[in-house]
Amino acid sequence: MKIKRLISQPLIFPILFFGLTILAGSLLLSLPISLNANTPLSLTDALFTATSATCVTGLTVVDTKNTFSETGQLIILFLIQIGGLGIMTLTSLALYLFRQKVTLTDRIAVGQNLLQDPRFRLGRFLLAIVAWTIIIELIGAGLLYWATNGKMDFISALFHSISAFCNAGFALYNDSLSQWSDNVAVNMIFIVLITLGGIGFFVMVETSKWIVERIKPKNNTNRVQLSWYSKVVLQTSFYLVIGGTLAIFITEFIIQTHSLSWFSALLASFFQAVTCRTAGFNTLPIGELTNVTLLIMMALMFVGAAPGSCGGGIKVTSIRVLFAFLHSELKGREQTVIGKMAVTRDSVRRALSIFSFSAIIVIGAVLVLCLSETGGIAHSESRGQFLEISFEVISAYGTAGISTGLTPTLSIFGKYTLIILMFLGRLGPLVFIGVLHTIQSRELFTRPESNLLIG
Fold it and tell me: Does residue 35 contact residue 41 with C-beta atoms inside 8 Å?
């Protein structure tokens, strides 16, 4: 009975589609046609790569360019595109194009993943998503080809454009984007693509309309206004990027000596602050950064991008609600206030749940990897491993894809741990909690309450 109830729930479909896509992708990547000559690939590494691509993470256990043929790279690109748009979105779009009826539950399920308001015209919205995505990725590819003077051919530029917009972080270079660290145009193109893919489709469309309205003549009295939701997403993202840039610049280039010019150091700090919020590219060698810088990047990766976007993490709205909740507690307010609006109790509860469950998952995964990778090694012989393990865990769960270099050296057990983390992080803990709630019987009674001494 519970299994039938579970299968009938709309929330189970993204789990099934992501899982089936990953399995299909891993099988395709294991085929000889997907690999370069004399390049072996285990099923575990194929599954890891397919999961990382579908979950738009970017962590790799093998070199993408040297391991996979052009066919294999095309498969990876296809998995990235599917993961970026979302399996549920593409499925609903397919139903719409074939003029199939999309039920109300499907409309609400898609709406909760893509919009803060489930009331919207599904068909037109999904077509807009695909159109915007294709246009932005093609423009990004053309700009990258131009900015690199053809050193990045158009196919390679398209690969990196899709990877950047989908916040996947897959690169065809061993050093990611380090060779372009001083190229302002390349850096800014990637930053714009990552940002557009990370703020969410709804915010991106609404902001573009708002900008267009501001360009129009001033006698236009019916100008589009940004919604409260868009303002919260844009402001919080801005604070995180600027704060992250300054923090990385201080800890990496002010406190210690460096050989970069001040402008190059500031540009590198800016790029890292943007990309570690789920994008996965890097222009600095991550394994050579200071411990403080790595901790700052871990915090940014844990927060991630906006709801309904290509990025992961607990989302910028969750952290904004949590800080607003703490601020209200300090001021003795009954309501959690952001700007001129108060957040509903249900939203506060969801933010607390996401943060709590995510923290538990990350701590549990760190413990598991410590056991599998350093369980039999004395602390004096494994110094630095704890920070690297924690970094990889948060990078996988936040689908950020940045690595200190530890991931390729993990044991099979460690790789499967990261695979599970990427899958959980892409769909979010609330999806799995919601699925569990649907198969539980609702209690029709209340229990007596009493105060408990806290703190």
Answer: yes
| Environment class of 312 (CB within 10 Å of its CB; exposed 0-12, middle 13-18, buried 19+) | buried
Which residues, at least 6 apart from 263, have a Cβ–Cβ distance to it below 8 Å? Answer: none
Residue-level length of the chain: 455
Contact 53, 76 (CB under 8 A): yes
Domain annotation covers residue 221: no
pLDDT band at 193 (very low <50, low <70, confident <90, very high): very high
Task: Tell me the residue ranges of DSSP E strands in 270-363.
Answer: 336-338, 341-343
Range of the domain at 322: 2-216+226-438
Interatomic CA distance for residues 166 and 83, integer angstroms: 8
What pTM, to 2 d.p., does this model score? 0.88
Q: How many structural domains comprise the chain?
A: 1
Spatial distance between the Cα atoms of 439 and 429, rounded to a whole number of angstroms: 16
The Cα 6–Cα 432 span in angstroms is 11
The C-alpha atoms of residue 150 and residue 238 are separated, in whole angstroms, by 32
What does the pLDDT average to over 211-223?
70
Q: What is the pLDDT of residue 5?
A: 53
